[in-house]
Specification:
Blueprint lengths: L3 E3 L11 E4 L5 E4 L4 E3 L7 E9 L2 E10 L3 E8 L5 E3 L10 E6 L4 E4 L4 E2 L11 E9 L2 E10 L30
Parallel strand pairs: 1-6, 8-13
Antiparallel strand pairs: 2-3, 4-5, 5-6, 7-9, 9-10, 11-12, 12-13
Length: about 180
């Protein structure tokens, strides 16, 4: 009863009945104990299914459609979305869902292409739109690249003179 498939589907023999005609003239309908080849449809197009029973074969044709990606969607952003100039871009944690023409949904964490390379040294501040592509479908997210600012300072070496009398001028010699 099924004559249209998608690439990767297994052949469904529901409803398939063979008519066996024996040498004594008897006729018998066969609805099981036969084999089909191929059992899985691996490529698109018109495909011949060969049915074998009792050393005899017959065949029928089915149509196999290519599964197409309808859209992709980001379901989990990368762990890091904020960087400083000089940091390397990382996509760790990025997860996308792929919605296929056969209604299936697949979730992947690799195998997609990014508009900026993994490990790319980010050289200028600003918001960067990152495109994620899979089989000609695209989704986007933004990362922010910030200038490095000095948030604090640490004294690595005390000045040579640390004791003063009231009115003495400060001497910074040795201070780092």
């Amino acid at each position: 009863t099924k004559l249209v498939y998608n690439v990767g589907d297994k052949v469904d023999t529901t409803g398939l009945v063979l008519t066996a005609t024996y040498s004594d003239g008897t006729v018998k309908d066969i609805s099981s104990d036969y084999t089909v080849n191929p059992t899985t449809l691996k490529t698109a197009g018109a495909k011949t299914i060969t049915v074998s029973y009792g050393g005899k074969t017959t065949s029928y044709t089915v149509t196999v459609n290519e599964i197409k990606v309808e859209k992709i969607e980001i379901v989990k952003l990368p762990q890091q979305l904020e960087y400083y100039v000089g940091d390397n871009f990382k996509s760790d944690g990025l997860t996308i869902s792929i919605y296929n023409s056969n209604g299936s949904v697949e979730t992947i964490t690799s195998g997609y292409q990014l508009s900026i390379a993994e490990g790319l040294k980010l050289s200028s501040p600003g918001t960067i739109k990152v495109s994620v592509s899979y089989k000609s479908k695209t989704a986007t997210f933004n990362i922010n690249v910030l200038n490095k600012n000095e948030d604090s300072i640490i004294m690595s070496s005390m000045p040579n003179k640390t004791n003063y009398l009231v009115g003495e001028k400060f001497d910074a010699t040795g201070l780092e």
